[in-house]
Amino acid sequence: MRGFPGSRPHEQEGPRPFSSGWLELATPPERPRRGFRLPAWIPDGRELSAVMVVVVSLAIAFVTIQQGQGSLIHEVVLAPATNTPIPPAEAPVVTESDSTLEVADDDVLEQPALETPAAVGANLKSDAFVQAPQMPTSEAAAVASAPFDTPLLPEYRIVAYYGHPHDPNMGIVGEVTKEELANQVKTLAADYAAADPSRPVIPAFELIATVAQRVPGSDGSYILDTDHETLTEYIDYAEEQGMIVLLDLQIGRGTVANEIEKVRDLLARPNVHLALDPEFAVAEGQIPGVYIGSLPAESIAYAQQVLAEISGEQGVPPKILVVHQFREDMIQGKELLEPLPGVQLVIDADGYGAPELKTAVYNFLVRDEPVEYAGVKLFYRQDMPLMSPREILELVPAPDVIIYQ
After folding, report:
1. How high is the pLDDT of residue 316?
2. What are phi and psi of 248, to 5 degrees?
3. N or C: fewer beta carbons within 10 Å in the chain?
4. In 3D, which of 312, 315, 313, 365 has the Cα closest to residue 341?
5. Which residues does 15 contact at the CB level (< 8 Å), separation at least 6?
């Protein structure tokens, strides 16, 4: 199991980059540059450039005439055994409306955008979009079926579609049928497998199992439960397709312990894992979607313990626990989280924004924090532009779990 790296390095004195104090500092005027001037009788830069173009063109023409047909040797490949010229290979052509969800359109809980790095304390690093090592092209890209006898991470990468089956406003899961959804996420998984052929990719659904509401409900928890019939339907189908399912819990004014018990029987299944969304875990007097919530490390550690127990009781490989985060204060006491046998903890850098901002948030919350496994979330409608699989895999560390909403 991967251990946690050290905490964020000591920061330098003075205003934090991208803080309000930093932005208020006056920018010193740029000093004029005194470059060396050539004598007046020497031609200026444009004339010299024109002369150089003529000279280079004449040189290329002369070399081509001298070589003649010998230049054709650069367009063939010698077979190792016979040294017989063979033509070069051709380049590839790139050629429900469920009555249980009674939420008005203006009450749909949308996640805030990542407005500025200062909003999350993020420091825009100069190593954003670090160049990834060259991927081998000889290995075949692989979309894998989820194994039930071995841990999924870090051997495999997970690519998931997020949302609620009955509400298209809450993510791509509700926009199409489960069959279409499976085909689309498999295609996306293949794109990631092609970008990194060394690591097979498992497609997944992330289903919102408890939905945060802006009305208290009969129990005052501000939570509406997704019916087990729907969840089971998707879990069964995913199992048939070799896919896994993440059950996402939006806590509202409830507790992690109570919400987990609602889906504990489903978590016993080998292809079902868990996700927690601190954004919607609010305190007394607060309303989900109006306030940005948080979870203490103790609640996340409790979820780890429950998943480890289920793994041991059922004799199945470690369960995955994804925790969404787009602000530092969404996980209280994050440094107290530790790896636990029987569960694989993923911190998912959530929130939408431009690629540079998403990279900065990822660096701050994942790269520079105590994280066991790395995750990132993308938004089809809000991310402008949407980062490509290659750009996502260039994040450091390369994400283990990638989620699309």
Report:
1. 95
2. -95, 130
3. N
4. 312
5. 21, 22, 25
Strand-pair category, 223-225 with 373-378: unpaired
In one letter, which amino acid is 393? L
Neighbours of 144 (CB within 10 A): 18
Extract the tokens encoding 46. Answer: 């444009």
Distance (Å, rounded) from C-alpha 62 to C-alpha 93?
35
Contact status, residue 229 vs residue 184, Cβ threshold 8 Å: no
- Evaluate the CA torsion angle 371, 251, 343, 185 in order and state its sign: negative
The count of other CB atoms within 10 Å of the CB of residue 195 is: 20
**Half-sphere exposure of residue 222: CA atoms within 13 angstroms, side-chain side:** 25
pLDDT of residue 57: 53
Chain segment 17-46, per-residue pLDDT in tens:
333 443 344 443 343 333 434 444 445 544
Residues 6 or more apart in contact with residue 137 via CB below 8 angstroms = 197
CA nearest neighbour of 371 among 199, 125, 194, 154: 154
223-225/201-212 β-pairing = antiparallel
- DSSP string covering 287-346: -BTTB---EEHHHHHHHHHHHHHHHHHHT-PPEEEEEEESSGGGEETGGG---BTTEEEE
Q: Give the separation between CA 384 and CA 143, rounded to whole angstroms.
A: 27
The conformational region for residue 13 under phi > 0 = left, psi -120 to 50 = alpha, else beta, is beta
Domain residue limits, the chain: 122-404
For tokens 């509406």, the residue is: 224
Query: What's the confidence (pLDDT) of residue 62?
Result: 52
DSSP for residue 227:
P
Position 113 scores a pLDDT of 53
Nearest C-alpha neighbor of 176 from the set 189, 166, 190: 166
Q: Round to whole Å and give the CA distance between 253 and 270.
A: 29
Which segments in the chain show pLDDT lower than 70?
A: 1-141
Q: Is the peptide bond before 154 cis (omega within 30 degrees of 0)?
A: yes
Cis geometry, peptide bond prior to residue 385 (ω within 30 degrees of 0): yes
- Crossing angle between the packed helical segments 228-240 and 178-195, to the nearest 10 degrees: 50
Separation of alpha carbons 201 and 141, rounded Å: 9
Per-residue pLDDT, 370: 86
| Angle of CA points 185, 190, 191, to nearest 5° | 95
